[in-house]
From TrEMBL:
Its main location: mitochondrion. One of its GO terms (molecular function) is ATP binding. The keyword Chaperone does not apply. GO terms for cellular component: mitochondrial matrix. It comes from Drosophila persimilis. Belongs to the class-II aminoacyl-tRNA synthetase family. The lineage of its organism: Eukaryota, Metazoa, Ecdysozoa, Arthropoda, Hexapoda. Its EC number is 6.1.1.20. This is phenylalanine--tRNA ligase. It catalyses: tRNA(Phe) + L-phenylalanine + ATP = L-phenylalanyl-tRNA(Phe) + AMP + diphosphate + H(+). The gene is Dper\GL20031.
Amino acid sequence: MLLTLRVQGTRYSLRTGNCSRSRWLASNAVVEKSPPPAQPQLEVNGSTYATDSWTNVTPKILSYLGANKHLQKDHPLSIIRQRIVNYFYGAYRNQRGNPLFSVYDKLNPVVTVQQNFDNLLIPSDHVSRQKSDCYYINKHQLLRAHTTAHQVELISGGLDNFLVVGEVYRRDEIDSTHYPVFHQADAVRVVTKDKLFERNPGLELFEETWKGSLADPKLILPSSKCMDQTKQPCHTLEAVKLMEHEMKHVLVGLTKELFGPRIKYRWVETYFPFTQPSWELEIYFKNNWLEVLGCGIMRHEILQQSGVHQSIGYAFGVGLERLAMVLFDIPDIRLFWSNDSGFLSQFSEKDLHNLPKYKPISHYPQCTNDLSFWLPSDVEVDAGFSPNDFYDLVRTVAGDIVEQISLVDKFKHPKTGKSSVCFRIVYRHMERTLTQAEVNDIHKQIANASVDSFNVQIR
Ligand code: PHE
């Protein structure tokens, strides 16, 4: 049961660690009410932040900050990070033979709405901004939902070839391939005309008509929904094609270095607000096409905002858990958070290229319990009650012993007009057998916490 893409009827459920077509294509704003925060201030990573009606980070989520699994010795995520970084060090070198790319793997995951969304031209009503999808500290700050959030600050600081690696936070469903914290690597490469056309000095990066206005902020295009997969209006076709060729060559090289030279892959056109044209790279794995990364030619407006007017860039982002699950055959995303030596001792970075297949520590039994409740009057699923709020509550109360949750039933009572929901919760401990009494106790705590938090009535 590994990494099959299950669409569970939600708009954005297709991701296992990274970018999904459905997530970025969808666009509908949902305004949600939420209870006022209990405390006016929050301490995160040593800094104090004001809270407001947008605050939805939980103590459980904040406890992941600084865990840095991608830097933990012998951890599978750290092994994947090192392999990606080493590949880029080798793929691009300067004239002295030194790596061209610099790596940022300890950037603060607390970012502004501007960094995570506005700078990347993500429309103001885009679904990915919703409170039900992100962990907000307050209206202006959140835990980054992708490592792409650091693009503008790094390019503005003068960098042109860099990798960002770190954990990202997204509110989502609970199953073996989703966890509210996972890891991404993002890369940017920006080149000048002289560099790109080293061997064809007669060619141009920009269309003649745009040349005079490349630095003019008025010319930022309202092309956030532009699906033209050929090129952005300001670029020449030659520039885009050459950049596309280089990017795809490097990314196929990375895929082959990770999965072996015989891996079957394909490019799929897609949409991201921050790149145009955009693609996803899929690999054929266990009889399925599996999306492993998203990439594209950077929107010129992003470079322009960063003070870079005469260059063109490519960017990509990849989810580390998904790569690690495939490479090591790790069946459950919760295992990346396990401190069990039975798990951790299986991986060693001494030989980065010896990738052992994960051997299950053992199979402990699952225990399934349903929880049904009536929502308050006038509240419905996705109109006042978001399943993601419930999933967070479950994570806070029960932690990692919950393996899956699914919304198995919802209906509206014809007379009272009240909505009822039923969630199926599958409990399974990773390291031991749970007793029925223990599960019943946690299940009861979840029920009580639901009554307190959502004002529901248990059925
Ligand atoms: N940030 C995107 C995601 O998380 C991935 C991406 C990065 C796509 C950079 C294109 C360029 O879904």
